[in-house]
Amino acid sequence: MSKNKLQKFDEMLDFPNVFQYPYAILQSEGGCPIRGRWNRDVFGNDHPLALELGCGRGEYTVGLGGLYPDKNFIGLDIKGARIWAGAKEAIDKDLYNVVFLRTSIELIAEFFAPGEVSEIWLTFPDPQMKKVNKRLTSARFMSVYADILKENGLIHLKTDSNFLFTYTKALTKLNGFTVQVCTDDLYKSGLADEILSIRTYYEQQWLDRGLDIKYMRFSPAKGQALVEPDIEIEPDPYRSFNRSRRSDS
């Protein structure tokens, strides 16, 4: 591990807006002590709570926090060096409605109680074309999202991947989700307002390569068993940048 990363990890220990709960700590403490109490114990208000899953450097988390001081935002990622960038920016901008949680997305039910969350943002997740259960819009994950979301809570998906976009459209239709917005070319649709025009590290790469950005906003069905669509989808004709090996500096 580089000295730069080690320095960031050390600094984050003193960041008031970063929460780190490795699985071993969850086990030893009997779960996350602020599960169900994020608004009361962390933000000190009753504002709507929004998550960005796989937030990377926190571009959306910080950007949305600046646009909406009357909402609370949590960026979640497993990569500490990436979270450092967003957390530092939020501190520098005095964004008290923005915090970061370092953990695996697979564990989000350990951190958020049923009905605690109002919105979830999925910004350019890995399409996982060969591993359905690791796909962040799979029936497996959607069931978890539906549980922690409030009634009529929203999920936002931005992606460059036609594979993931096609798959997610099929899953939402099959399971009777309420789809509010669905476009395969966000920046030509007239829908790209100041919120949707926030650009992540990856989004700028895709745009520089001339790729169209897809966007969906929908509410998942609650209280029902979700099923996977049985369809053949053409793989994306390009290889995504290796996200696990890109620079975190």
- Large-scale geometry: globular
Gap from first CA to last CA: 12 Å
Tally the helices. 9
Mean pLDDT equals 90
- Which value, in Å, is the CA radius of gyration? 18 Å
Helix content: 25-40%
> From the helix content, strand content and strand pairing, which structural class follows?
alpha/beta
How big a fraction of the residues is strand? 15-25%
Relevant terms:
249 residues, alpha/beta, globular
Question: What this model shows, in words?
Answer:
The protein is of the alpha/beta class and 249 residues long. The chain is 32% helix and 20% strand. The protein is built from 9 helices and 8 strands. The chain has helices at residues 3-12, 23-29, 38-43, 59-67, 80-92, 139-148, 162-174, 186-189, 201-208, and strands spanning 18-20, 49-53, 72-77, 98-102, 117-123, 149-159, 178-183, 214-219. An 8-stranded mixed beta sheet has the order 1-4-3-2-5-6-8-7, with helices on both faces. The radius of gyration is 18 Å and the shape is globular. It starts with a helix and ends in a 30-residue tail after the last strand. Mean pLDDT is 90; it is low at 242-249.
